[in-house]
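Reminder to self: tokens first, then the designed residues, so the page reads top to bottom the way the pipeline ran.
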């Protein structure tokens, strides 16, 4: 069952790398983050993508949230998170590659545990990608979902930054 508006996000851990090696520039020191603690008393915009470095995710989805991050935060979001079923090193490198510069937290759900707990996991093994998450966006207020938009295959509307900004302003 997919998480719905009015429900509390499940307890889970996501990981992120915010430090980079001086020699190689590679992400280092992944840190596990407790979702339940991070959402307390905050408004979080969380968007999920099927995979880091994939075309739509890299060309439109993540860049849209980076470009509108100031407006999204001005509309009430404390933080913006990008989540993918990738490891924290890949997520850190992806954020660096798109010049994220700390506007969006790059959160890894390496084993799809959070995606599965929310009912947003998607079996993409036939295409060689394993278990991933659906493309989605949600607004979480003090741990409770106040908006969720889940995309079908090939869709990109309910989860884009512009849509989330409109929802935040309601």
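Designed residues (170 positions):
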């Amino acid at each position: 069952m997919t998480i719905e508006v009015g429900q509390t996000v499940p307890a889970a851990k996501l990981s992120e790398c915010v430090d980079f090696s001086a020699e190689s520039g590679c992400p280092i020191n992944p840190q596990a983050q407790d979702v339940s603690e991070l959402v307390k008393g905050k408004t979080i915009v969380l968007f999920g993508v099927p995979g880091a470095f994939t075309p739509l995710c890299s060309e439109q989805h993540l860049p849209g949230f980076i470009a509108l991050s100031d407006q999204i935060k001005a509309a009430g979001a404390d933080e913006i998170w990008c989540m993918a079923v990738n490891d924290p090193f890949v997520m850190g490198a992806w954020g660096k590659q798109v010049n994220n510069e700390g506007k969006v937290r790059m959160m890894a759900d390496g084993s799809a545990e959070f995606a599965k707990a929310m009912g947003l996991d998607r079996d993409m093994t036939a295409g060689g990608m394993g278990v991933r998450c659906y493309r989605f966006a949600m607004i979480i207020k003090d741990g409770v979902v106040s908006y969720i938009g889940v995309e079908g295959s090939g869709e990109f509307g309910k989860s884009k930054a512009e849509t989330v900004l409109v929802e935040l302003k309601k």
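Residues 13-168 form a domain with the Glutaredoxin fold (CATH 3.40.30.10).
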